[in-house]
Design goal:
The chain is an alpha/beta fold. It is 33% helix and 25% strand. This is Oxidoreductase.
């Protein structure tokens, strides 16, 4: 089986991480890096042995099978569209676009071209969250009553000048940046096609920006499960928390590796007659087993992407998952 030849468009932080993943995976190799910033390309040439270009037209090369799109948000969907039109499979960084219209167009285009179109919702592949999903699917905590989550960081010096704080490039603030991950997880855990109630409160508390640095989100499912999400770029100490409470117990995940701390999964079952909780089970995903590296989730997602290309089967997370998340975000921005 031939290796999938990969191009990466956008060589900022996520572009570097995806290059590492694509070139380390057995069934893929990095053939091309595209970025409009010549300084980035010069730096990349010191580390990577592949082709380099500043023009998207290079994607039309027959030497490219798949494209990773890792640009600022406003360019994600247009570049995805261009790659699909040129017959390339696409893994697009989240949020995959800035509105539902462009996501819908790319979903249809990928289907018409019989191409794989996946989205970088890598949090699904963090080991603690993946194990929590298995517990929920097995019925371990029964019917879900509520989900509560906090996800935040404190930026860094000069953060207000980065593209994420420029609406003309980002298309939105924290709601679109980290919020899209949590909304995707809510859909994933609850198996919802849509939420019947959606409400959000946005705040710009610190950074000099015209977009929000905090978002507070409340969702309610058709089965009356309530989801409470808070994302922030004024959370001075990085934090990730994901809690699920059901009729028979609870599951809690803290940390994502790296600066977010070691991933920890805790759960307890509750006797529905006596109300007593059984012994708490705690699982750590520590650095000695490689879980401290946040990119382990990218490797897992990449494996799904390559499997989709090779098998012709559709795997998630894909365009439809991005569409679900963006539909919630659009409604909150329109409030």
């Amino acid at each position: 089986m031939a290796k999938t030849r990969v191009a990466i468009v956008g060589f900022g932080g996520m572009g570097w991480r995806w290059a590492k993943v694509a070139n380390s995976y057995y069934w893929s190799c990095l053939n091309l890096i595209i970025d409009s910033d010549e300084k980035k390309l010069e730096e990349a040439k010191k580390h990577w042995k592949c082709n380099f270009d500043s023009d998207l037209k290079a994607l039309s090369s027959p030497e490219i099978d798949a494209v990773v799109v890792a640009t600022p948000n406003i360019f994600l969907a247009p570049i995805t569209k261009y790659a699909l039109q040129n017959g390339k499979h696409v893994l697009c960084e989240k949020p995959a676009g800035v509105n539902t219209k462009e996501i819908k167009e790319n979903i249809l285009l990928a289907k018409c071209q019989c191409l794989s179109y996946m989205v970088g919702f890598n949090h699904r592949f963090h080991p603690a969250l993946a194990q929590a999903k298995q517990l929920v699917s097995s019925g371990f905590i029964g019917k879900i009553h509520f989900i509560r989550s906090v996800y935040g960081h404190g930026g860094r010096p000069g953060y207000e000048n980065e593209w994420r704080n420029k609406p003309e490039l980002a298309g939105g603030g924290e709601l679109l940046d980290q919020g899209v991950h949590l909304i995707d997880l809510a859909f994933w855990f609850l198996l919802e096609g849509s939420f019947k109630k959606i409400h959000g409160t946005l705040a710009s508390n610190f950074w000099s920006s015209k977009i929000e640095d905090n978002a507070f989100i409340i969702l309610q499912s058709s089965l009356e499960a309530t989801v409470s999400l808070h994302v922030s770029s004024t959370q001075w100490q990085k934090k990730f928390l994901w809690e699920i409470y059901g009729e028979h117990g609870f599951i809690a995940i803290e940390g994502l590796g790296g600066n977010y701390g070691i991933e920890t999964l805790r759960y307890r079952n509750r006797d529905t007659i006596t109300g007593k909780l059984d012994k708490e089970e705690i699982f750590y995903f520590p650095p000695e087993y490689g879980y401290e590296d946040p990119d382990i989730s990218l490797f897992s997602l990449w494996g799904k992407f390559i499997s989709s290309i090779k098998s012709g089967k559709e795997y998630g997370p894909g365009g439809s998952d991005a569409l679900n998340a963006l539909s919630v975000i659009e409604k909150i921005y329109q409030e």
